[in-house]
Fold:
Amino acid sequence: MDGYKKIVNVLTKTYPELMPNDFTHEHVIQWREHVLKSAKPVTWNNYARHLRSLYNFAIEYQFISLDKNPFTKLFITEDKAKRKTLSVDQINVVHDLLCSKENLPDILTPRWFILALFQTFRYTGIRRSQLIKLRICDIDLERKVISIPSHINKNHHYHEIPISKKLYPYLCKLKFEMLRLKQTEKDQLFNINKVSKVVVNRRGEMSVNQVSHIFSVISKLVGFYVSAHRFRHTIATQLMKNVDNVYSVKQLLGHCDIKVTLSYIEYDSEMIRECVDGL
Structure:
């Protein structure tokens, strides 16, 4: 819901005097031109997709009197830019930094928390927005699964992510420390505010911006760009080097449509070469 609210706010800032019934196809085209002056087509398509859904809902249930959705047929063809992944060497560099560097910046402490954060992105491909909404009760160490409730999943479907052997000890440590700090099962699992000595808001929940800041600091230290979402593309590409894994990757990433999963796969010339060499 937060995503819809943000986009509606962007629209109403441009047309503060218009009510939902007043919007026409021409208004939307004008707004599109305004948006594209400072944003990319992918941003506009995201706006149009969300608002089209809202208008479809409002028209279907007669909350508004419009017969035609003003946001139909207004998408723009996007340039398919190369998705960014991390190489095995780059991932090892980040891991070595977090494990070996004697004096980490204060924001990258405690070390065990940052490692749990890094390894969770590395071995699950979880979205940043999902990770910060996880509750302690969503981690089942006995079954070795992370539950992604429907209300925090982008497609509103429940799914589970397996906890790998390499990730398991980090999540055990994280859950133990959070419970030791008197957090309840309903409290946020990844909350640096409860364990860091340098944050200001000790009582608040960890935010998406804090996650981004952590990876920004890591990026400066290692000399290349690292982000939470790059791990999602990386794990998909690595697993798809074996094409038999396509269903497993779809389930891991929580996609409903296999086409979405395939769009996450980075082109790998070496993988194609191996297939051709086998002819």
